[in-house]
Amino acid sequence: MNKNNYEIIETIGKGSFGLIRKVKRLSDGKVLARKEIDYKRMTEKEKRQLVAEVNILRELNHQNIVKYFERFVDKDKTIIHIIMEYCEGGDLANIIKRCKKEKKFIPEAVIWSFLSQLVLALNECHNGGSGTSSMSKPHPPILHRDIKPENVFLDKDQNVKLGDFGLSKIIESENEFAQTYVGTPFYMSPELINESCYNAKSDIWALGCLIFELCTLEPPFQSKTQLGLSAKIRQGKVENLPHQYSPELNRIIKSMLTVSHEKRPGTQDIMKVGKIRSYIIERELQQKMQELCLKEKELKRLEGSLKEKDLALKKREELIMAKEKFIVEKEKKFKVLISQQQINEETKISFQNNFSSFSSKGNSMIGFSNGVLVDSNFKENF
Questions:
Q1: Could you identify which of 26, 61, 314, 364 might form a hypothetical disulfide with 135, taking C-beta atoms 3.0 to 4.6 angstroms apart as the criterion?
Q2: Which sign does the torsion angle of CA 141, 142, 148, 154 carry?
Q3: Any idea which positions bind ATP (predicted)?
């Protein structure tokens, strides 16, 4: 495949190294997103990050992670094209911006849904493809390292899709920690502020910041200076959510924003929380129902196919039986004809024999001459 297999619809995003286009795949008309990255001006480190992103995207296959399709390189123009799932619902940053403008809060049920789906996506990353609803092959644990509203997308059905794994890192061993600072300053974890090593729990901190911002429409920690921001993050003091949100939601967010990463919950812990667990169970049931519906459709299709085959077989059997009947009738007629011919032949032979006998006797005439019996073949005179 190459870029000529796609028709450009519009440009939907731009960055320092390239842009993202909405494209249509010509083979089937499917709408996708194409990330076009110019690697000519990249440093070796940035090129390695780019390769790592592609490798990570190929590893992940989960319904709450933006799906990777393929990649190809235009060496003449030094551009790599990454084909991904198109999320027409936009990102969470746009939702926050719209709610601010309209001065309204996101309903709590929607917040729980977003949180549940993001936890499932992170569980897929952190637990190497062994999590709930995983469709991936087992892979090394992956840290996202840049969870923020701009990197969480929605599809047409408002399902959450975690995307942009450009800063992600594959952790080769369970005890390995990432060393370098990356990510969004407002969502930096205390261990990053303290220049300490960190693991998957830094993603949990960022998730807590994101959910807090969805509820309040503001980040949990803000300051006009980096020093002031760092001080607030180290303290970890988080205000309560607006009154319309439940204590349960307030508690789970504060637990994700625990200063000590050792005491911070992991994805498996968060998945045990009542409403999240209920969401997961409900989704698993929906998935099973969908699978059953697909199986039912397939069975109906097979049943219809079998009925068609059965009908075709019956018609074929009827045709064969009709042919057999025709052949039997022909055989009967043939036998009658042969029998009649044999009778005719026998009659003819009998007639010929009788005629022949009669002819031979016709040469020896018997009669009376002058009152005396005379045989013409009898030469002797008496």
A1: 61
A2: negative
A3: 35
- Choose the final residue of a domain: 243, 272, 301: 272
pLDDT digits (tens, 9 = 90+) for 34-83: 999 999 888 898 888 888 888 888 888 999 999 999 999 999 999 999 99
Instruction: Tell the burial category of 236 from Cβ atoms under 10 Å away from its Cβ (0-12, 13-18, 19+).
Output: middle
At residue 381, the pLDDT reads 46
Helices assigned H by DSSP within the chain: 44-59, 92-102, 108-126, 190-193, 201-216, 226-235, 247-256, 267-270, 274-362
DSSP notation for 243-261: TTS-HHHHHHHHHHT-SST
Q: For the whole model, what pTM was predicted?
A: 0.74
- Work out how many domains the chain is built from and give that number: 2
pLDDT score recorded for residue 210: 98
Do 193 and 101 belong together in one domain? Answer: yes
Rg for the chain, CA atoms, rounded: 46
- The per-residue pLDDT for 246 is 97
My answer on whether 178 and 224 are in the same domain is yes
What burial class does residue 204 get, using C-beta atoms within 10 Å of its C-beta: 0-12 exposed, 13-18 middle, 19+ buried? buried
Residue reference for tokens 């087992």? 138
Positions in the chain short of pLDDT 70: 1-2, 129-136, 166-183, 198, 351-382
Q: What is the C-alpha to C-alpha distance for residues 286 and 329, in angstroms, rounded to an integer? A: 63
Residues 219 and 314 both lie in one domain: no
What residues make up the domain containing 218? 88-272
pLDDT tens by residue, 124-144? 999 876 655 556 678 788 888
> What are the tokens at 290?
């969908």
Inter-residue contact 80 to 37 (CB < 8 Å): yes
Please report, as a single letter, which amino acid is at residue 280: I
Instruction: For residue 112, give the CATH number of its domain.
Output: 1.10.510.10
Report the C-alpha gap between 59 and 140 in whole angstroms. 9
